[in-house]
Structure formats: C-alpha cells, structure tokens
Specification:
With about 280 residues, this protein is of the alpha+beta class. The protein has 2 domains: about 160 residues, Uridine Diphospho-n-acetylenolpyruvylglucosamine Reductase, domain 3; about 100 residues, Enolase-like, domain 1. It is about 30% helix and about 25% strand. The chain is built from 11 helices and 13 strands. A 5-stranded antiparallel beta sheet has the order 4-5-10-6-7. The termini are far apart. Bound molecules: flavin-adenine dinucleotide (FAD). The site of flavin-adenine dinucleotide has 28 residues, from strand 2, helix 2, helix 6 and strand 10.
Length: about 280
C-alpha cells in the first residue's frame, strides 16, 4: 500500500524528495483522473504520494522588480482574485474547469502535468514565464519552454519541485487568447492561441504568437516572430501569407480523439492570421 506524506514545511518536503521517490500531488485534479483505470474506480498510485497542498510557504503572489511571483501552491481561484496578476492569465484561468476545480487546482499542476492542451501554458509561453525549481541542494530558474519537453515530460529531477512561477510585467498594445474546444469552459482545448504585439512609429516593434494543443508541447517560434518585426502594417498584410507558409514545421499538429491534423493546422493558422490582420497602428 502506498503511503501519503503531508509535509507542513518546504524543507521537510525537499528532504523527503531527496531521500525517496515520490509522486508529487498539489490539487490532484489531474492526478486523481490519470491514476484511475476506468471511470468509477479508485485511483491507483505506484509510488508514495507527497501531498504539497498544505505548504503555506508556497502559497503567495508577490510583485517584485517588474515581475509577478506566484507560489506553486497558490490555487487557480486565488490567482484570479489577485490584483497584480496579468489580466490575460486571469481570463484563461476563469475558463479552466469549474470553480470547484479551480479552488484546489494550481498553476504549478498545469505545468507539471505538461499537456500541450494545458490552457495556462500558452499564456505562460507568450509572457516568457520562468519557473523556479527547488531541491535540497539549491534552486534553478528556467524558461517554461525549457521545463516542458514533451507530453507529460519535464526536465524536473525526482528530487525537485516547482517552487514558483515568475511572470515578467510587459506592456503590449494588444494581447489576446483564443480557445477552441467542445465548450468554452470545462473542456479540453482542440487548439489554443495567444498573441501579443507592440507597434512603434507605424512599425511592428514586437509580435509574439503561442499555439497550444497542436504539437507535443506548446509552440512559440521566435524565428517566425522575428520576420514580422520592423514591417509597416501594410507590408505585413501583403507578406503575411508567405511568412506563415515559411514556417510549415511550426504548425505540424498532433492527431488525437479530439481533432485531426488538418483541422488543427487550418484553425491555428486562421486564428493567427486573423490576429495579425487586425494589428492597428
Ligand atoms: C473536470 C476537470 C476540468 C478541467 N479543465 C481544465 C481546463 O479547462 N484547462 C486545463 O488546462 N486543465 C483542466 N483540467 C486539468 C487540471 O485541473 C489542471 O491541469 C490543473 O492546473 C492541475 O493542477 P493540480 O494542482 O490539481 O495538479 P495535480 O493533479 O496535483 O498535479 C498534476 C501534475 O503536476 C505535478 N505537480 C503538481 N505540483 C507540482 C509541484 N509543485 N512541483 C512539481 N510537480 C508538481 C504532479 O506531480 C502531476 O504530475 C481539468 C481537470 C478536471 C478534473
């Protein structure tokens, strides 16, 4: 039978992780589903469970030096309620699950789950979020893109946990998120998109595009983004089809029971095109 460890302090949690192999659990809203063999059965865990939700040390939201720091045990609902959290992230979280899910589920859990359809991820990629990972020996901070390497795959070592999510405060002229799913809320994305831009002196100063649920991880192509910079809006509209076509590799979608590849590619490109065509000077 597996044991359930419920540490009250971060140092105790890190010590357990250093000395054994544990299944980390935060809100459990992903894990309790994944660990069932069929609906109606009890979840089956292969490893002892380290339940972190009682770690008050990891429940905080702080604004420091132009960055928002979100402790890993802050619930999704607490994030929505906080005045310093970027509006786009709140908008996305409001559509994640139901209030009951958001009262226990966490942003760290959405990252740790490493699903390409994780709704918060597309915004975290767009905003260049960094993830602070901790273990008994120390901390390291990595861009979210380097933490997630595939479907349910991360670079986290068995003795590490997500300590906090760091989001730089950046101003854009326009920032947008689109989720295509069976329903708007409480549904897994078939395709999701987040875009942001700044225009200076009638030219694109910055354009960011992130795509979710189309590949094995969320995708941001900085090479593609660079091609838009310094163009005037009219140049952009003329060159857009060629630019989007130039990055065929970017949108090379996955197939699963929710959608096929052709649908995903068409929808992702249409949403991106629509966003770019509406850029205003
Ligand atoms: C009915 C329902 C609706 C849902 N709707 C959505 C939706 O619309 N959009 C969406 O994106 N998701 C949705 N989800 C999935 C889920 O709620 C989210 O992914 C949530 O963010 C998971 O957080 P959690 O704290 O419950 O994670 P958990 O289930 O506790 O953990 C998930 C994974 O992250 C790891 N993990 C958690 N915390 C840490 C940490 N601090 N350090 C290291 N690893 C950690 C765990 O080991 C596990 O692998 C839904 C789930 C349900 C049941």
């Amino acid at each position: 039978m597996v044991k359930h460890i419920i540490p009250e302090t971060l140092i105790t949690a890190l010590t357990f992780l250093n000395e054994g192999t544990y299944q980390i659990m935060a809100g459990g809203t992903d894990l309790m589903i994944q660990k069932r063999s069929t609906a109606g059965t009890l979840p089956h865990f292969e490893r002892d469970v380290l339940y972190l939700a009682n770690l008050e040390e990891l429940r905080y939201i702080r604004r420091e030096n132009g960055q928002i720091h979100i402790g890993a045990m802050t619930t999704l609902e607490e994030i929505i309620d906080h005045p310093d959290v970027p509006e786009l992230l709140k908008e996305v979280i409001r559509e994640m699950g139901s209030p009951a899910i958001r009262h226990v589920g966490t942003l760290a859990g959405n990252i740790g789950n490493a699903s390409p359809a994780g709704d918060s991820l597309v915004v975290l990629y767009l905003l260049d979020a960094q993830i602070l990972l901790s273990c008994l020996q120390g901390n390291r901070t990595l861009p979210v893109e380097q933490v997630i390497t595939g479907v349910r795959k991360t670079v986290m070592k068995p003795n590490e946990l997500i300590h906090e999510i760091i989001i730089p405060e950046v101003k854009f002229d326009q920032i947008k998120w689109v989720k295509v799913g069976g329903r708007q809320a409480d549904a897994i994305s078939k395709v999701s998109f987040a875009g942001a831009y700044r225009v200076v002196d009638h030219r694109v100063a910055e354009l960011r595009l992130a795509f979710g649920a189309i590949a094995i991880t969320v995708i941001r192509s900085r090479e593609l983004e660079k091609q838009f910079v310094n163009r005037t809006i009219s140049e952009l509209i003329i060159d857009l089809p060629a630019i989007l076509k130039s990055d065929d590799q970017l949108i090379s979608p996955i197939y699963d029971q929710r959608s096929n590849k052709i649908y995903r590619r068409e929808v992702a490109l249409n949403i991106a095109r629509d966003f770019i065509e509406k850029i205003k000077e």
